[in-house]
Amino acid sequence: MYRTAPMPAPNRRATSLTLDSKLLDDARALGVNVSRAAEAGVAIALKQAREAAWKRENAGAIEDFNSYIEENGLPLAKFRQF
After folding, report:
1. What was the pLDDT predicted at 26?
2. Angle at Cα 8 formed by Cα 4 and Cα 14, nearest 5°?
């Protein structure tokens, strides 16, 4: 029988949030774990912010590469099978 190592518990820290009262009431009425839902929402917002930052930081390189392709075509295009 295979045994897996237990996952370490995330390092959690208490914080204070201000939420729309109707939203909070509905979440509680439906048994939604507000802390976990907020954590998931923050994780999504962080992912989006990191992606946007990466695009801003690399905009010049992306523009240069797109210009290269417009002028020279795709690298290795002659080897494409489709």
Report:
1. 98
2. 155
